[in-house]
Structure to design on (343 residues):
């Protein structure tokens, strides 16, 4: 599927990158708005049930495999659904009950750094070099800057919210690492659809355990706008953008979307809800970004040396064949699958 066909080829990657960052960065603010009217886990569960069904319909048309067939493929979809969709979004939505979307986006941007750390511990073929440890520590320092630790802060709802959102980043990172060993030829569209559907089922079951009820939903204009935007724009449309950008540019360039998202979220928070982030939140984001740059310094150097927008980079790869594992490309707004082998 080729989107933005009218855009000149030399500019298409930049346009795809910008629109994807806008879709996923603004999703944090859309979540913040929707949580005023919908219980968090029901909100996330219904969103991904519908988005998953739509993406599955697309997979049925665009691919030759509409469902996982082997034990490995089902396991990959299950792990991605539980960690990358259910736990990530469940904790994120719960966290946004206490912190603004812009703050949540900043904390979530630690996911690539956390992925590198988990890969170094869990995967025997990867290890975190000293520079990677420095990058990981900088990521944690960035989160602490967002919390702004004082004696009052550690007893506040903000700390609880940041802890929940940081837990969502941990879940996403852990899911990215755990799916990496699964080798399969399952099309990324099919994997993504089933991960969404499995994750939606877990979220709705979690909502029932938590006592959330459909009767508590307030059916307002804001409810429908927020839900529709998250499902159709930040969900379905953005995933199609992601599929194309990944195939055109490769994983390293797509990872950078994760660091554009907080900037978009900050701007959207100011425009839509009038929230202005403070200087320490910006310092935290820059510190997290510095940690990422240290970990991915070689890949970023090669990316800068490449011939530029619209021409092949050393990381261009087909999303179905990368690392021999389609599941490594499972994605959700707010985090990016991360390859730590660069360090």
């Amino acid at each position: 599927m080729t989107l933005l066909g009218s855009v000149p080829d030399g500019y298409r990657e930049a346009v795809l990158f910008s629109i994807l960052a806008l879709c996923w960065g603004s999703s944090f603010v859309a979540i913040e708005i929707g949580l005023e009217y919908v219980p968090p886990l029901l909100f996330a569960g219904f969103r991904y049930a519908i988005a998953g069904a739509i993406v599955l319909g697309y997979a049925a048309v665009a691919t030759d495999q509409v469902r996982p067939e082997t034990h490995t493929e089902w396991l990959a979809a299950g792990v991605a659904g539980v960690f990358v969709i259910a736990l990530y979004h469940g904790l994120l939505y719960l966290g946004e009950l206490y912190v603004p979307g812009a703050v949540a986006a900043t904390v979530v941007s630690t996911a690539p750094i956390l992925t590198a750390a988990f890969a170094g511990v869990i995967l025997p073929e990867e290890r975190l070099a000293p520079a990677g440890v420095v990058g990981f520590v900088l990521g944690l320092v960035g989160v602490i800057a967002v919390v702004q630790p004082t004696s009052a802060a550690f007893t506040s709802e903000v700390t609880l919210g940041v802890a929940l959102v940081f837990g969502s980043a941990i879940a996403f990172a852990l899911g990215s690492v755990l799916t990496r060993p699964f080798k399969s030829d399952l099309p990324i569209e099919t994997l993504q659809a089933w991960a969404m559907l499995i994750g939606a089922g877990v979220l709705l079951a979690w909502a029932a355990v938590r006592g959330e009820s459909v009767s508590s939903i307030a059916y307002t204009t804001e409810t429908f706008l927020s839900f529709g935007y998250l499902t159709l724009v930040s969900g379905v449309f953005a995933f199609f953008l992601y599929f194309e950008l990944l195939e055109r540019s490769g994983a390293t360039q797509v990872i950078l979307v994760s660091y554009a998202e907080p900037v978009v979220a900050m701007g959207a928070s100011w425009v839509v809800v009038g929230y202005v982030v403070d200087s320490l939140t910006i310092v935290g984001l820059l510190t997290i970004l510095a940690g990422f740059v240290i970990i991915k310094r070689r890949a970023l150097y090669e990316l800068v040396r490449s011939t530029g927008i619209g021409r092949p980079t050393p990381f261009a790869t087909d999303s179905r064949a990368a690392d021999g594992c389609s599941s490594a490309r499972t994605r959700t707004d707010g985090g990016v699958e991360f390859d730590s082998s660069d360090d």
